[in-house]
Amino acid sequence: MDDHPIVRQGLIQLIDQTDDLCGCGEAGDAPQALELVVSLKPDIVIIDISLSRGPDGMELLKTTRKDHPSLPVLILSMHDESCYAERVLRSGANGYIMKAEAPQTLLIAIRQILGGEIYVSETMSRRILHKFAGGASTERSSPIDSLTDRELQVFRLVGIGQGTRQIAEDLQLSIKTIESHYAHIKDKLSLRNSRQLVQTAIEWAGLQGSGRHDAAG
Description:
Elements: H1 5-16, H2 30-40, E1 45-48, H3 57-67, E2 73-77, H4 81-90, E3 95-98, H5 103-114, H6 122-132, H7 149-159, H8 164-171, H9 175-188, H10 194-208
Parallel strand pairs: 1-2, 2-3
Helix pairs in contact: 7-9, 7-10, 8-9
């Protein structure tokens, strides 16, 4: 699912060029994607984590997992996997791949998931296995990791330039609720005021390569 037709078409063309895979549909937003899942009954759904309007990819993933618990879901994202991969796996995704990866890697991920396996990069796989094995982390945990899924969603939207009212409308939440999320984010990231929040969010979004490209599937 993606609200950028060129991105969606590119993914469909890549998949259709293979002998064993076929793209059966594409959607421009979360509601349309959920409708197509019901009508087309795909074998796998590919979702981008960063939706520019309405529910983001994480919310779409959770809804898909709730309504279709056995349907494989691959998350395709511009965001660094260190921030999102574990989150989406905990929420029920079957794999996570960054858009910067080669097109053939996407096909490998799709086939691996259809084969009943989980797909993450080798680097992320080692990191997860090390954590489950109880080994001491070789990397410092980022304060961003302390944010809840909703707080991270709000933080990302601030980073791409959305204001309080727009975020509230997109997420269908009250302005008061968004302001409460701001307070929690500032506390967790040790930010003194809203100006620091905006500056930090913009810097983070830039490092993540965050844009308005959204989802595919």
